[in-house]
Amino acid sequence: MRSESLSCGVRRVLWARLAGPVCALLMLVSGCATFDQRAGFSDVRDVVEERSGKRVVWNLGTDLDAEVAEEVRQLLAGTLSAAAAIQVALLNSRELQAMYAELGVAQADLVQAGLLANPVFDGSVFFPIAGGPAKLDLSVAMSFLDIFYRPLRTRVAAARFEEAKLQVTGAVLDFAATVRKAFYHHQANEQRLDLLETVVQALSVSFDVTERLHAAGNITDLDRARERAQVEEAKVQLRAAEVSGHESWAQLNTFMGLWGEETAWHIERRLPDVPSEPLATEGLEAQALRQSLDLASARQQLIVGGEQVGVSRAMLFIPESSLGAGSEREEGEWKIGPTIEVPVPLLNQGQGRLGRAAAEFRRAEQEYYALGVRLRSTARLVKERLQGADDRVRYSRDIVLPLRERIVRETQLHYNAMQIGVIDLLRAREQQIQAALAYVDTLLDYWLARTDLEQLLSGRIPSGEGIPTGRRARPQTMGENAGH
After folding, report:
1. CA distance 246 to 338
2. CA 296 to chain centre
3. Which end of the chain is more exposed for a tag (fewer CB within 10 A), N or C?
4. Angstrom distances, CA of residue 79 to CA of 52, 71, 264, 268, 391
5. What is the DSSP letter of 278?
6. Residue 20 per-residue DSSP state
7. Which one is predicted more confidently, 194 or 304?
8. What is d(CA 407, CA 183) in angstroms, rounded to the nearest whole number?
9. Model confidence at 15, in pLDDT bands (50, 70, 90)?
10. What confidence tens digit (pLDDT) does each residue in 283-336 have?
């Protein structure tokens, strides 16, 4: 009995001496891994504020949410400008709030990459058929190579986390540009609506005069029909403008995350005039390259690819191996010793894993260079669009519209003097209406081109698309999920 107690004491001492240093080493290597879903958002917030002058807030159920809601109400209470609409959208959009979760996903991947695999405990009992004492086997093992691969996995995950921050930042800036364009579209629709309402009113008054002239026998049935046709066509255009205004209003509400009584906002019903001085565009290509978040994201993908190649090469022959300790009890005696498991790389030597990582790295490299070429071409295109729209707006405003107004005024005088017929007067009015509508379209083209230029200088390639609402799936490679 005494010898049995002594044997148990020896076993406990052996296990303590073996497990103690191992556990201490694992605690030291693993560190204190914690998950913070807000990690990285401060970087996104700072870059967005620096490049757009607007604030972004992540709604996580804190006291700050009530302050943000009050700020949104104050912005909606006044006359909504393009800048105010963008700020409301950035603070109130649920789609943006959902997109910020991408940062939490990337942070979780980073934390997971830094964790070591859990030790595996194995135990078995064998009972002899012929009778006698049972045989007991106990062992504990863990992948010791996981300790060496952990820094490689962490670097890959850290590079992906930086890429996620760049992508979220870029998506926020894209969203701001999309809201600005939607605001200008709505202003243009409201301006067209006001213009067409004035036209319909003027044509209706003119048609009343035509009716009296026709009743007096001063104009023919044909002239009366032509005058009425112009009135009815103007009414059709007015109805189409009303529908377009409702559509752009609804789209802007969607971007700003508004519904119910919140949609009772109002704006200036005219597009702003072009600035007195044209926007300076010298050195645009170089500035776009320096500011580009797209290039920075592509560069980060290169870093991810390079790190992944390193991981794949390190894990080429021995992707995993276990080291531990085992004990065995047989015929009342305990035996203890180390255990090791090492795969023999005869059938699978990881060639496919390494080849895939190398191919993805080459693809990222070519995409990086292609993006640089695209950036330069886009800068030249946006510059040409803006300068062309600026020239057309100024020419229409300073020459075409005053000329059309003068033509209508002179034509009216000739018509009153019975020197021309009603057809000439109708044609002059129609041409003036078309010139005014064309001016609104040209002014809208200018502000859309200017928005594209500002978006380019903020670091994004203009695309005309909204924000992505779904996660971009990426394939997982071996070695990423070694931590449990």
Report:
1. 76
2. 15
3. N
4. 21, 14, 11, 7, 30
5. P
6. H
7. 194
8. 34
9. very low
10. 888 888 888 888 888 888 788 788 777 777 766 656 666 666 677 766 667 778
SS3 content of the chain, % helix, strand, coil (to 5): 70, 10, 25
Displacement of CA 185 from its chain's centroid (Å): 21
User: pTM score, two decimals?
Assistant: 0.77
Q: What whole-number percentage of the chain has pLDDT above 70?
A: 81
Q: What are phi and psi of 259, to 5 degrees?
A: -160, 165
Candidates 265, 331, 298; CA nearest to 132 is 331
Whether residue 13 is predicted with pLDDT greater than 70 in this model: the reply is no
- For 133, the token pair is 């004492």
CATH class of this structure's domain 33-457: mainly alpha
The three-point CA angle 316-319-325 to 5° equals 145
Q: What one-character DSSP code corresponds to residue 400? A: I
**Is pLDDT above 70 for 169?**
yes
Length of the chain: 484
Instruction: Tell me which amino acid residue 49 is.
Output: E
Residue written as token pair 């066509």: 233
| Nearest by Cα to 452 from 400, 387, 397, 394 | 387
Distance CA(98)–CA(100), nearest Å, equals: 5
State the number of CA atoms in the 13 A half-sphere of 170 facing the CB. Answer: 22
Q: Taking Cα atoms as reference points, which of 175, 192, 79 lies closest to residue 443? A: 192
pLDDT of residue 128: 76
Residue 229 near residue 422, CB atoms below 8 Å: no
- 419, two tokens: 């020197």
Domains in the chain: boundaries: 33-457
DSSP bridge partners of 188: none
Q: Of 177, 377, 380, 174, which Cα lies nearest the Cα of 293?
A: 174
Phi and psi angles of residue 61, each rounded to the nearest 5 degrees, phi first:
75, 35
How many contiguous H segments (helices) and E segments (strands) does the chain have? 13, 6
Provide the 10 A C-beta neighbour count for residue 100: 22
Q: Determine the residue type at 165.
A: K
Amino acid at 161: F
